[in-house]
Amino acid sequence: MAGYIRSLIFIAALAIVAGCEDMLEPKADSTYSSEDTWRLSEKARGVLYNAYAAITNKVDMYDDNFLDCATSDAVTNDFESDVYALAYGSVTSASNPLDIWNTAYAQFKNIHLFLENGLNDNVRYSVVSDDVDLKYKRKYKGEAFFLRAWWGWQLLRLYGGKTSSGEVLGYPIVLNSSDGYDMKARDTYEDCVERIIEDLDSALVYLPEKYTGNDPITGTSGQGRASGNAALALKAIVYLFAASDAYQPDGITEGERRFKWIRTVYAADVAMSHIGKTKPLSSASFGGNSNNVDSEFLLAMSTGNSSDFESRNYVTSYYGRAITNPSQNLADAFPMANGYPITDSRSGYDGNNPYEGRDPRFYLNFYYNGAAFQSRTIDIFEGGIDSITSDERNTRTGYYLRKWIVETCNLTPGNAVSAHRYNPLIRKTEVYMAFAEAANQIWGPYGTDPKYVPSGRTAYSVMQELREGAGITGHEYMTEVADAGKEAFDAFIMNERRIEFSFENRRWFDLRRNMMLDEMSEPVRGVDVTKTDDGGFRYEEKIVEDRHFEDPKYVYSPIPYGEIAKNPLLEQNVGW
């Protein structure tokens, strides 16, 4: 528990640290070979900010697609995309659409070069004041530690996996610019976790808790940068994955597993006490004229002003490409506003009027038949302007994507209107969900332990808070599920994660860390809508795409073949 004690000490130090930057947009600088790099502050900072610039600022970050389109939650209309190939299981060690190995190690190199050269006395970030210069260096040092943790986490989340020996491995850890990774063995998963956590604890020493006020170093102009709150949140997320089924070595004891869940709970509880309450998403969270970061987002990358996302996902009748089509599977996962699932007779769900009275989050995710869009309704019924029978580029599932769409954007030639938006990389709600999942695993829905949970929170109380914030009007059903015990409540939490983080590229990883093979291979369903003689509509389900991830090897990603070929010390994940 020493790491947790250090965290609390480091949190106290946040009050005296500095850290901020005028720019929201990270800019790459690859000219660090020049001697001037380590004398000129802009170039020195540019080396570090390469590690920001390599983080995508698009929510549909996978070849202009969401990773959700390789699950049962959606399909893509972009048949040439990497995600479409991935959805059909087209993954090999030599060709993996998700591969980030070289990108991550390139960022390690940038970060290490900066730590070794960019904080020395010959680089000054303020020529006016030694004190201001020191504050900048402390902030940059904190950002460097955070970014090393971030890129380590990206490697671990994707490549961490079990080997044929029953051991769970991560990635080769490197800690300086001369420490080559190409002839090193993979470190254990747990060693990688400890490395990431140590970097996050170090970042907490130097980073501001959050960016507020008008100070040029710690003010709101630094939104979008690493912060103490983002570091606290990431600790809980890393620990959650480390406690999940997919990353447990053979022979692990019940006590060892319990410890992993407890450290997740503790980290999440500490984080929640600092980040504050969650803020439910609304259409305003998706973007608009303001460049302020939504308070729900603890780490987010700015896209600047653009209508590119709308160009990819507007309906075709509004000059869009309708790339992302949400599924009936996902639609069915949303309960009614009273909290009951649509399969429960008490829910009030009407199959002939399926979009009335749903969970408010449903309307943030879907454009459905009859949904309002700008000056008209979406007409998906057969023969309607937005149906696949009217244009083969239209939706294949009977739904269009609503989430992240800024409706003020206009794609009309000669009258284009853009919007400012962010890609949320870490959200407050992720921390709350991590707590609920871990607490339920240890104590069930209602249990807690003040030794590890000073706040007294329980899995149930956290989920109740989140559901109330989302607009669910009753908790009778959730109470029934909680009364049924830990296993039932775990399934409930996972469905809430599916709903809350839809089209945030989370479910792909959630399915794999929990080894949910049946759900990984669930066929994607859609709906055909036809008009009836009485003026109503008939909704008939259909299969749109199959998923073929039945083989347990798909729980893990393969280590790239090129790395295995040149480094005999790298052990491949099982099945690859």
Provide structural commentary.
With 576 residues, the chain is mainly alpha-helical. Helices cover 38% and strands 9% of the residues. The protein has 18 helices and twelve strands. The chain has helices at 2-13, 41-53, 82-87, 101-117, 130-159, 189-206, 228-243, 254-275, 308-313, 328-333, 362-365, 428-443, 459-470, 476-483, 486-500, 507-513, 517-520, 561-566; strands spanning 74-76, 161-162, 168-169, 297-306, 324-326, 366-367, 372-373, 376-377, 400-401, 419-427, 524-531, 537-545. A two-stranded antiparallel sheet has the order 1-5. A two-stranded antiparallel sheet has the order 2-3. Strands 4-10 form a two-stranded antiparallel sheet. A hairpin with a 5-residue loop joins strand 11 and strand 12. The radius of gyration is 24 Å and the shape is globular. The chain starts with a helix and ends in a 10-residue tail after the last helix.
Question: What would the keywords be for this entry?
Answer:
two-stranded antiparallel ribbon; disordered N terminus; two-stranded antiparallel sheet; mainly alpha
How are the elements arranged and paired?
Layout: H1 2-13, H2 41-53, E1 74-76, H3 82-87, H4 101-117, H5 130-159, E2 161-162, E3 168-169, H6 189-206, H7 228-243, H8 254-275, E4 297-306, H9 308-313, E5 324-326, H10 328-333, H11 362-365, E6 366-367, E7 372-373, E8 376-377, E9 400-401, E10 419-427, H12 428-443, H13 459-470, H14 476-483, H15 486-500, H16 507-513, H17 517-520, E11 524-531, E12 537-545, H18 561-566
Antiparallel strand pairs: 1-5, 2-3, 4-10, 6-9, 7-8, 11-12
Helix pairs in contact: 1-6, 2-4, 2-5, 4-5, 5-6, 5-7, 6-7, 7-8, 7-12, 8-12, 12-13, 12-15, 14-15
